[in-house]
Amino acid sequence: MTHCILIGAPVDEGQAQPGCLMGPAAYRVAGLAETLAELGHTVEDRGDVMPAPGRGETCDNPAVHHLPEVISWTEALAASASAGMADGMPVFLGGDHSLSLGTVAGVAAHAKAVGRPLFVIWLDAHSDFHTVQTTTSGNLHGTPMAYAAGRDGFAPFPPFPAPVPGENICMFGIRSVDPAEHTALKQTEITVNDMRVLDEQGVAAPLRAFLERVHAQNGLLHVSLDVDFLDPSIAPAVGTTVPGGATFREAHLVCELLHESGLMTSLDLVELNPFLDDRGRTAKMMVDLVGSLMGRKVFDRPTRSY
After folding, report:
1. Are 226 and 269 contacting, i.e. CB atoms less than 8 angstroms apart?
2. What is the pLDDT of residues 49-92, one digit of tens each?
3. Closest CA to 130 of 103, 92, 97
4. 91, 135, 160, 300 — which has fewest CB within 10 A?
5. Alpha helix positions (H), 223-262
């Protein structure tokens, strides 16, 4: 049994398509807490994080927008993540992926405090490896993995508390990487299991190889699950769709294997935009995946109305 701490992160400023701020409410309406409770876990909903007002920070890159607001979210979510890790397993209900600037920072601070290495698995169509200086879109949801890895170019963000070594990061399901990100990734030890790898090897072997490293080092494992990890045909409620994503069964297998490993200690659910959804289809799908992450087996799957 796990004590699951739900933390709403209605972040909408990290990208250009309004609607992600409704994500936390959609997860609650779709029955996330009830699903966790049915699986025997205890649930504590701490409500939505409220960041302080922005302080007017600026940077040299004119493309960047909402910088002060995202910095405030980062600071607030880092504090919430660190506190949540001390009490149970925090589940962050997003909100766009810029929320991970804060959640991974808070989890990393906790890992450092307890003397255990942090590992991150990034279930996403995108590598999110831009910096504040390199982004051309100015959308800061494309930067959190670079921040966590300790890349330069993040002023005026607070320094990342304990950068995650490249060999402790696994990007899984990647299929959209900008040239600048590709160049930067080649200079790291980050494992990039793109869709070509998964097509050739399946999802189980690459995932198990990474999880074995986590287990061998007694690591904490942060899982960041982006809606666009999934193929848009089954999960339309995201503003950054990329064809060729994970299928229903591939996604559930990933989640089932993560559960069986017993290694996950924190979770992001990001980029759900209910404004783009079809009668809550994607929100229900994501809640169903959390069920698999937390112990539901394939033969326990409920019948759906779609």
Report:
1. no
2. 999 999 999 999 999 999 999 999 999 999 999 999 999 999 99
3. 97
4. 300
5. 248-261
For residue 82, the surrounding DSSP H or E stretch is helix 67-87
- Tokens read off for 283: 């929100």
Q: Which among 165, 146, 170 has a CA at the least distance from the CA of 261?
A: 170
Q: Convert the pLDDT of each residue in 211-261 to its tens digit.
A: 999 999 999 999 999 999 999 999 999 998 899 999 999 999 999 999 999
Q: What is d(CA 104, CA 84) in angstroms, rounded to the nearest whole number?
A: 12
CA distance linking residue 201 with residue 193, whole number of Å:
10
Query: Which amino acids are annotated catalytic?
Result: 97, 124, 126, 128, 141, 226, 228, 271
pLDDT of residue 241: 86
In order of start, what are the domains of the chain with their CATH numbers? Answer: 3-280+289-298 (3.40.800.10)
pTM: 0.96
Residue pair 54/72 in contact by the 8 Å Cβ criterion? yes
